[in-house]
Amino acid sequence: MALVLHRESVPAAQERARDWAEIQERMLVPLYETVYDRLEVGAGTELLGLGCGTGLALMLAAARGAAVTGCEADTGRLALARERLRQRFGAAYGRRTKVLPGDPARGALKGEPARYDLITAFDPVVPAGDLGPALAAAVRAAPRGSTVVLAGWGPPERCSTSRVLSVAARLAEPRGKAPEVRLSGRDDLEDLARAAGLRPDGSGRVSCPFGYPDLASAVRGLLSTGLFDAAAAATDRQQVDKELAEALHPYRRSDGSVRMENVFRYLIARRP
Predict the structure, then answer these.
(1) Which Pfam families does the record match to this protein (predicted)?
(2) CA-CA 20 to 30 A from 108: which of 38, 47, 52, 78?
(3) What CATH number is associated with residue 194?
């Protein structure tokens, strides 16, 4: 049986949000840029980012001239996203760039006009069961013909990080056989799109290596994803840190840096 690991609240939510912003989020820049290039995101694009994290994907789209709105349920990430967008775009925040608390399924888009011609759900950590209601609500708030982009992990054999994430699965259920960490099924993105009333219309794969200057940064970056929360709850943070560091050793380089090769997949879908 596949194990899906969810984010859970932690006392140091703001610290973890900063680790995500400063260490981990940038690993997905090749995915963001590839999608934006393919869809020619720029002036005239009205973009809605679901689970926008600390706002990096929004900033990249806004820098191309797009009007961007993000939704983020994590309060630590939400605060940082707003801070970064205000610092980067100044008076344009609130007009051409903004971040809303919560998700569409819980009313984050209440009162928003149905104008978004591009909706993105880039965060591969969010389980499909969690994203489904938010995606369906966002699609209802978009005009017909809008484009939706969903992203997920590529095949486990193409993702070095899958071997490291198996530590999270094993520690999460220490009394039984370690279940498989299911990064992404072959048709997960298509199934999610169809469940939201969308029509799949193309896909692609992008290389997104995870690179860190040292082992400590790698541990902090991976913990910031929330994928190890269940493991920490089942054991303790010290045990998770220790075993995560050990799992990363095969990916250490002679200069002390850490690098794992990964492939991410994205799906383009349309609202009929």
Answers:
(1) Methyltransf_25
(2) 38
(3) 3.40.50.150
How do residues 129-188 score in pLDDT, each as one tens digit? 678 899 999 998 899 999 999 999 998 899 999 889 888 888 887 544 444 444 466 688
How open is the CA angle 172-176-179, to the nearest 5 degrees?
A: 60
Q: Is residue 57 predicted with pLDDT exceeding 60?
A: yes
d(CA 153, CA 233): 24
Domain coverage including residue 206: 13-159+182-211+259-270
Supply 195's token pair.
């469940």
Structure tokens at 141: 């708030």
Q: How many domains does the chain have?
A: 1
Q: Which residues of 90-114 are buried (b: 16+ CB within 10 A; e: fewer)?
A: eeebeebbbbbebbbbeebbeebee
